[in-house]
Design brief:
This protein is α+β, with helices and mostly antiparallel strands. The protein has two domains: about 10-265, L-amino peptidase D-ALA esterase/amidase (4-Layer Sandwich); about 275-395, Ubiquitin-like (UB roll), CATH 3.10.20. The chain is about 35% helix and about 30% strand. The protein has eleven helices and 15 strands. It has helices spanning about 50-60, 80-95, 120-130, 135-145, 200-210, 245-265, 285-295, 300-305, 310-320, 350-360, 385-395, and strands at about 10-15, 25-40, 60-75, 105-110, 155-160, 165-175, 185-190, 215, 225-230, 275-280, 330-335, 340, 345, 365-370, 375-380. Strand 3 (about 60-75), helix 2 and strand 4 form a beta-alpha-beta unit. The protein is globular and about 70 Å long. The two termini are about 40 Å apart.
Length: about 400
């Protein structure tokens, strides 16, 4: 459960004046002392940022040395200049850590359509390179340098014992809104001192992301910048993981990704509840995921939870328009363990008790059971409050 810096990595987060508040970090630099295997998964939006284009060309790889991240400006919808700026950002970071330009990955998040202030970013990279460290303070400052409208920094880690080797997996993430699978307005950088082959790292990250980052939503709006990176520098020693050791690593990676993923809707803009949706008894994993996603993205379901209203009709009807065939007579629904609907029929329940359960707990569990098969799915979202509307109405103007 430990969250610490894996061997051979150093990090820093600094304020370089992209954001107006000098108390807020807005640039992060992550450096591996040796070339690392790197894998990436990215937004599926046809409109994507210049950093996504750059990183797609450079991953998977076995020679990445650094990741540089800025927050406040997304460098998306910025045309050829945006691509040149992303490449220049990589060159600046490469020079600061004695690497080659193509050994650097770039992440940007913030307002769409604005150009990068490269003079400020250059100053920030220089400052961050001088503060690189491997302690807890450096890890926290790096996580904070990725934040936009997040209210808290997001870290998760696991320490594994694999064939006598201690392996550390530590992840940093940001995200609070414009969240809608696949991927969302989120950035994640996951570091490990395990040794992994590039194709193995890519497969492991893709599988972990599919069960975590692709199972969250705040508002159903897919971003231009979504990126999750995995860097594995092999500093724990030994040959690249395989067999049972690789299986153990993939479980640990999945746990880190799920913890980070859950933290994003839990920090959703204006959110007062983290809503966990569990589907069971479905014909296929795909159909279970589709129903769960549809329920999660329903404004009426989200506002009901915000108001602590056990309005089961909104949940059941959202499942019904998900585009997945099922027998309505086989639907059962529980909220926070209270049975509200069974076998396609409402049941008597204490509405006051259910409402109080929702109101008094930030975590709300919605369980939908069908009679179509044995597949299940999990999905996480936030409620929808007036504060979300205010924050997003005011964000740009």
């Amino acid at each position: 459960m430990s969250v610490c810096v894996p061997k051979g990595f150093r990090l820093a987060g600094v304020h370089c004046r992209i954001k107006g508040d000098p108390r807020k970090q807005d640039l992060t630099l992550v450096v591996s002392e040796t070339p690392a295997t790197a894998a990436g998964v990215y937004t599926q939006n046809l409109v994507y940022g210049a950093p996504v284009a750059l990183n797609r060309r450079r991953t998977p790889s076995n020679r990445i040395r650094a990741v540089v991240v800025n927050s406040g400006v997304a460098n998306a919808c910025t045309g050829e200049r945006g691509l040149r700026d992303a490449e220049q950002m990589a060159r600046l970071a490469a020079a600061a850590c004695a690497a080659e330009e193509d050994q650097v990955l770039v992440l940007s998040t913030g307002v769409i359509g604005a150009f990068l202030p490269l003079d400020k970013i250059q100053q920030g990279i220089t400052a961050a390179a001088g503060k690189l460290a491997a302690d807890e303070a450096a890890l926290v400052s790096a996580a904070r340098g990725m934040m936009t409208t997040d209210t808290v920094h997001k870290l998760a880690g696991r320490t594994l014992q694999l064939s006598g080797r201690q392996i550390q997996i530590t992840g940093l993430a940001k995200g609070a809104a414009m969240m809608g699978p696949n991927m969302a307005t989120m950035l994640a950088v996951i570091l490990t001192d395990a040794a992994l082959l590039p194709e193995v790292a890519q497969a492991a990250l893709a599988a972990a992301a599919d069960e975590s980052f692709n199972c969250i939503s705040v508002d159903g709006h897919m971003s231009t910048s979504d990126t999750a990176l995995l860097l594995a520098n092999g500093q724990a020693g030994g040959e690249p993981l395989c067999g049972d050791d690789l299986a153990g690593f993939r479980r640990g990676l999945g746990e880190v990704c799920e913890e980070l993923a859950r933290a994003i809707p839990a920090d959703g803009e204006g959110a007062t509840h983290l809503i966990s949706i569990k589907l069971s008894g479905c014909a296929s994993p795909q159909s279970a995921r589709q129903i769960a996603r549809t329920v999660a993205n329903s404004p009426l379901v989200k506002t009901a939870i915000a108001g602590a209203d056990p309005n089961w009709g909104r949940i059941v009807s959202a499942a019904g328009y998900a585009g997945v065939p099922f027998d309505p007579a086989g639907v059962t629904l529980r909220v926070n363990g209270f049975l509200l609907y069974e076998g396609g029929t409402p049941v008597g329940f204490d509405a006051r008790a259910v409402s109080e359960s929702i109101r008094s707990h930030r975590d709300t569990l919605v369980e939908l059971e069908l009679r179509e098969g044995e597949a299940d799915a999990r999905f996480w979202t936030s409620d929808l409050t007036a504060e979300y509307v205010r924050l997003n109405a005011d964000y740009h103007t």
